[in-house]
Amino acid sequence: MAWIDKLLAKSPIGPMQDHMRVASRCARHIVPLVEAMIAGNSDGIRSARAEIDALEHEADEIKHEIRRHLPHRLMLAMERRDMLDMLDAQDSIADVTQDIAELADQRQMKFPSPLAEPVRLLSARVVDACGQAEKIINELDELLETGFKGREASRVEEMVSELSRIESDTDALLDTCCRALFGIEDEVGVASVYLHQILLWIADIADYSERLGNRLRLLTAR
């Protein structure tokens, strides 16, 4: 695989970008998973879970290779700890997506109709956040070349600010989803506990995405 060649060349940047691409692909499968849950489609839930499981496994393989080959110091502008913190946030995107799919499949969960549109909007905006984080990580090599300074740093700062705005949208959408769920809590019964957890986990994907942006923002501020 291409990322192995990059690791052998002692550059962790390409593999980091590859890992983020896989994590982002994993998160995008939240949309078909949510649609299957709205429709009460057990086969659709199981299929989405299988895709997510495969991508999470691929992300784990890349993560382990990065950790094994990561030097103690990359460049003067960036330390090993910075890279590991970003890798952890990227990995959390794939991990929490897998958690959502596992719970949805194991309990054969369905979103009640009052939740359908709010959760569609939430999942779509969360995917936007993850996609924006992927774009930012794709700028990492150029940021390192410029020492996290200059025009490239300013451009990435604008991208991070946009990511923060997207994450704020997900907070508001999560609140709408939770209010809709709690409004039918008596009808849903004990399933409301699990549905609430899934909503929180979906929003967590945007939080982990924003964490990536904030890490790079700190580096440009040094």
What's this, in brief?
With 222 residues, the protein is mainly α. It is built from 10 helices and 2 strands; from the N terminus they run ααααββαααααα.
**What's the SSE pattern?**
HHHHEEHHHHHH
User: How many individual helices?
Assistant: 10
Helix content percent band: over 70%
CATH architecture heading = Up-down Bundle
Could you characterize what this model shows?
With 222 residues, the chain is mainly alpha-helical. It has a single domain (2-221), classed as Methane Monooxygenase Hydroxylase, Chain G, domain 1. The chain is built from ten helices and two strands, in the order H-H-H-H-E-E-H-H-H-H-H-H. The chain has a two-stranded antiparallel ribbon. A hairpin with a 2-residue loop joins strand 1 (73-75) and strand 2. Helix 5 (80-106) packs antiparallel against helix 10 (191-221) and helix 8 runs antiparallel to helix 10. It is globular. Residues 4-9 have low confidence and may be disordered.
Outline the secondary-structure elements.
Layout: H1 2-8, H2 13-28, H3 30-39, H4 42-69, E1 73-75, E2 78-79, H5 80-106, H6 113-137, H7 140-145, H8 150-183, H9 185-188, H10 191-221
Antiparallel strand pairs: 1-2
Helix pairs in contact: 1-2, 1-4, 2-4, 2-5, 2-6, 3-4, 3-6, 4-5, 5-10, 6-8, 6-10, 8-10
